[in-house]
Design brief:
Layout lengths: L2 H13 L2 H8 L3 H15 L4 E4 L2 E4 L1 H28 L4 E7 L6 H12 L3 E7 L2 H10 L4 E5 L7 E15 L9 H4 L4 E5 L5 H13 L5 E6 L2 H9 L4 E5 L10 E5 L6 E8 L6 H15 L2
Parallel strand pairs: 3-4, 3-5, 7-8, 7-9
Antiparallel strand pairs: 1-2, 5-11, 6-9, 6-10, 6-11
Helix pairs in contact: 1-2, 1-3, 1-4, 2-3, 5-10
């Protein structure tokens, strides 16, 4: 059964006149008659009584009309929805983010959703290394990651992040004295599995300044790590970008010198064509540029 036959049936039922129905469908009257005849032959029943008054629905036609009308409406809705999907205006987008984009990524998603409210966005907290893998596998469309990325991935820088020392306020540490006291401070860390980029950045900072860290405990997530610092158990090297979630009782002390800064950007896999992803990247880069 052809959707054109159902549409012809619905329009003729609504118009009750072959000439008016043909005009609305932008076809000739003979073409309309052929579509109706073909539908009647397929169903084995007359759908219209033809006379001087035009075309009137038979009993079978009256019963079929509401269902045909619903199907034609659903077909139109599908066409409109499909067009929005292929143009990147609807659908689902999987996005990854990490510690350094903890605050930025949700803001850019919100800006995108204002432009494209029909898009469902999944936002998952993942280490950059895991995001690289999922982007290559097609399970993520966009990632907020530590730069640089390796080919075939492509990226655009969004911000610079830097190391800071999160310390219990009770210690009353001074920024200018951190390097001198660092080896004596109990150091808390994220597990390398959860924050490999941060872990490697911290190790490079420690090596560059010839420090000997006194690691006393590791945590599997940033909230637990911050809770341990707030409780006075130790200090932690963290990205400055997480400062907005720092609880009371913690001082954030800047660090200077080598290996304290890195770039964070938005990454994607250009080998996979995706209009929805491209729309997100365009909106995100524009929104980030005016922050």
């Amino acid at each position: 059964m052809d959707i054109r036959q159902l549409r012809a049936f619905v329009v003729l039922a609504e118009q009750g006149n072959y000439r008016l129905a043909a005009e609305r469908l932008c076809i000739t009257q003979p073409a309309l008659s052929k579509q109706i005849q073909a539908l009647e032959a397929l169903l084995g029943a007359r759908l219209f009584n033809r006379g001087r008054q035009g075309a009137q629905l038979t009993a079978s036609g009256q019963r079929l009309y509401p269902e045909a009308q619903a199907l034609v409406g659903q077909h139109l809705q599908f066409q409109q929805r499909a067009l929005r999907i292929v143009q990147g205006e609807a659908g689902r987008l999987a996005i990854g983010f990490g510690l350094s984009s903890f605050h930025l990524a949700p803001q850019l998603v919100a800006a995108f959703r204002q432009r494209f409210p029909e898009v469902a966005v999944g936002l998952e907290d993942l280490p950059s290394e895991r995001q690289y893998q999922l982007l290559l596998q097609g399970e993520l469309q966009v990632g907020f990651v530590r730069l640089p990325v390796s080919k075939p991935l492509r990226a655009s820088a969004l911000l610079s992040d830097r190391l800071v020392l999160a310390a219990p306020a009770a210690l009353a540490l001074k920024a200018e004295a951190i390097i001198g006291q660092f080896n004596t401070l109990p150091l808390l860390q994220l597990t390398p599995k959860r924050g490999r980029g941060l872990s490697e950045q911290s190790l490079r900072f420690i090596a560059a300044h010839q420090l000997v860290p006194n690691v006393v405990q590791q945590a599997g997530d940033i909230q637990t790590l911050l809770a341990l610092v707030a409780a006075g158990i130790g200090v932690a090297l963290l990205p400055h970008s997480v400062s907005h979630i720092i609880p009371a009782g913690i001082d954030i002390l800047p660090l200077s010198g080598e290996q304290t800064e890195w770039q964070v950007g938005i990454a994607w896999n250009p080998q996979q064509a995706d209009a929805l992803r491209d729309n997100f990247i365009q909106v995100a880069l524009a929104a980030a540029s005016v922050r």
